[in-house]
Amino acid sequence: MKSNDGFTLLESLVSLTIISSLLLLLLQSLNISIFQLKKTDTTVLAASLSRSLLSEIGVIHPLQRGEISGRIGNIANWSATISKRPLFFDDRAPEQAGVMAYDVALEITIQNSQYKFYTVKNTINGNLR
Known about the structure:
single chain; 129 residues; alpha+beta; 2 helices; 5 strands; 40% helix
């Protein structure tokens, strides 16, 4: 008479295959989560740098038409394009009214990823507002 106290080799292999497949799916989803976390971290860094750079434009960097660029340590490259924005609030020319508005387009490159930010800066009688 034969005893059925253990598992057969086939049952053991099937259970190991199922366990390894589940572990593979778990590791794959973990890898995707890590990638998304890195991408989010880079996006937050770009937004923080853009906020700092946009506040410098008109204070450290002159607020005039053209393009300026630079490098932030070994973290990122940036370039900003400044253009005049037409104002239609008065019959007078904006220069006569003392009000000038500028569109600022900022592009930051971090680890081969490009991020673009836009804002409007205005001056009243030559003073940044």
